[in-house]
Amino acid sequence: MSTRPSTPTAGKLPLPELVEMKRRGEKIAVITAYDAPAALLAERAGVELILVGDTAAMVVLGHESTVPVTLDEMIFLTRAVTRVAQRPLVVGALPFGAYEVSDEQAVTSAIRMVKEGGADVVKLEGAGRMVSRVQAIADSNIGVMAHIGLTPQSATKLGGFRAQGRTADAALKLHADALALQDAGCFSLVLEAVPAPVAARITEVLQIPTIGIGAGAGCDGQVLVWHDLLGLYPGRTPRFVKRYAELADEIATALELYVSDVRTGAFPEEQHTYSMADDELALFEEALARES
Ligand code: KIV
Description:
- The protein is of the alpha/beta class.
- Helices cover 42% and strands 13% of the residues.
- It has an 8-stranded parallel beta barrel with strand order 1-2-3-4-5-6-7-8, surrounded by 7 helices.
- Mean pLDDT is 95; it is low at 1-8.
């Protein structure tokens, strides 16, 4: 069997390159995406990782939390992204209920995410019992991204969507969890809503890259949710979000213009319609006339 030579810039980003980026002090850019057009735009912008996050439950599927989204739904969305993403690694998030029961369940779900969803790697939330889930998946040769701090799947238990690790004890626990997850074999760690100095200390101690969301500039990379970054929701977003556009307003203006054009007849115009040869039109009219 021949193997194709790979060049550093062609094809899929090799997973070990992320650790190399950390070593070289280069920041890793991550964005969530849930469909093919978004994946194409994310790749064009040069992100290293596209996360098909279970935030899809809220920003795409209209749920109040990330809990209701199913593995089948996550696989469906991941498939749309992996069909088009060439260079960025695609991370498929395992939803709540897909890995809590046992290591076997976690491995089975991760395999489905890779085989059916086409994901390059998977992500799950938590430490504690989840450390052995990470190990089981990594031992099955599937890359795992871990996620601690604010873990939205357990927001109810955490008392809501609030920052974590804000006392010395809680910060020490996060630090210990991060080391345990690294030892278990995860290739990267998301730190969500964690004080910046705590995230920076965790980043320093780990060999694997940390990806922050609301965890300050000391992380090795950053992730934001597509809809937050682009302002696809009117109103407030969490304090850690930087909105790079206000697309909800632009889209609303465009849609109102469209509705108005339909009502007034300003759309469609000649250029938006198809013509027909005069003789064919005449035959059509004659046929109709004969029928009536
Ligand atoms: O899975 C997800 O959507 C996330 C975001 C919070 C980045 O982890």
